[in-house]
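Structure in, sequence out. Go:
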């Protein structure tokens, strides 16, 4: 069961019990936030096959994940420790249970079958740098940006992007799944890199 831990004036933990939880000012929302900056139906958090996502429901003041504003109706994968901001009025840390971070229980979450994937030395290095902020012991780590990885590898962001395209193919990610967040989840599920919490 995932959990939202409030910051500032919205302190306290809120368990996400339902597989789809609506966030909003309305009384029918599973996660109710009584603030005028929050829309009646502001966002939706849902879990599908063990993957948590959040999407902005075309709210007036927007939804942000780790500082990035979400496009309305576009699901965004949530990783453990992600910082969610609703309307810049309520900020929460998104937290997973230890079981979910380890890949979930077979009885409750469909596991992604582990696969043998051959990585080139460059691909393995890019994956390690993708998690650089986790390895530095940050309280709320995030995935590295293309330019951060490029700086560490003394190359260009375009070269890193090409490596990521190859990784998306090897990890069988297509269309809307081709992003760093889904890649990070897949490589952890397939044990292509060491586990980070």
């Amino acid at each position: 069961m995932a959990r939202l831990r409030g910051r500032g004036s919205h302190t306290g933990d809120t368990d996400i019990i339902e597989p789809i939880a609506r966030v909003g000012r309305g009384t029918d929302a599973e996660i109710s936030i009584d603030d005028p900056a929050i829309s009646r139906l502001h966002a939706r958090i849902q879990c599908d096959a063990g993957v948590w996502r959040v999407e902005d429901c075309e709210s007036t003041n927007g939804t942000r994940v780790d500082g990035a504003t979400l496009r309305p109706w576009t699901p965004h994968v949530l990783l453990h420790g992600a910082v969610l901001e609703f309307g810049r009025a309520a900020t929460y840390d998104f937290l997973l249970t230890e079981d979910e971070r380890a890949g979930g229980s077979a009885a409750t979450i469909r596991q992604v079958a582990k696969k043998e994937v051959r990585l080139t030395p460059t691909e393995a290095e890019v994956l390690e740098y993708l998690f650089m902020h986790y390895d530095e012991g940050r309280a709320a780590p995030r995935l590295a940006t293309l330019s951060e990885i490029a700086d560490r590898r003394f190359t260009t962001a375009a070269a890193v992007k090409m490596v990521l395209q190859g990784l998306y193919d090897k990890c069988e990610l297509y269309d809307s799944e081709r992003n760093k967040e889904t890649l990070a989840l897949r490589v952890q599920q397939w044990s292509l890199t060491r586990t980070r919490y």
